[in-house]
Amino acid sequence: MRPLFKGMIIALIHICIVSSLGAKLLYDRTVRPRVWALATPFDPNLPIRGRYVSLQLAVEPWGIQETTPGSGWVPPQSVILRVENGRLVAETDPNKLRYEPGDNHVRFIQWQDRQLAVLERPIAFFIPEHVPDPSRLQAREELWVEVTIPRKGPPRPIRLGLKKADGPIMPLDLR
Questions:
Q1: What are the beta bridge partners of residue 62?
Q2: Rounded Cα gap, residues 162 and 143, in angstroms
């Protein structure tokens, strides 16, 4: 077999692998549930930054108790994410009794004079260079993100939206 032919076969295999991942993500986006979730902007302390907004997703905790460090402190338990009545809900996973780092976990934070339950791992939403940072909010504005909820792993962001006061969520045009 000639080297050029071998190289073409390897390139074709790589294209198939990348295409299958893209097809799976598109399939999940059409089949898996979607929901708008309140997002709290999160500024990670990373030396390498891209053009993205790092967001913590607020969830509605079902059966999750807030734990505080100290005597008898228990690490956060794994949670299952699902959509219930148009809300992103986190419920304790009964099949996982111990802390597993790769799972979704919830922690409680204080944000804009209220206490929120947020997913422990922030998600990144990549934005074009010419778009102003959507995480810099005006007074009485909230940043929301539409996400797909996969079977495993963190939610996958689709688009961002702004909600002013008590109005509807207005999707942002970030093109």
A1: 91
A2: 5
Bridge partner list, 32:
none
How are beta strands 106-111 and 156-164 bridged, if at all?
unpaired
8 A C-beta contact, residue 109 and residue 40: yes
The residues of the chain scoring below 50 in pLDDT are none
pLDDT value of position 48: 61
Q: Tens digit of pLDDT for each residue in 67-87?
A: 666 556 666 778 888 898 888
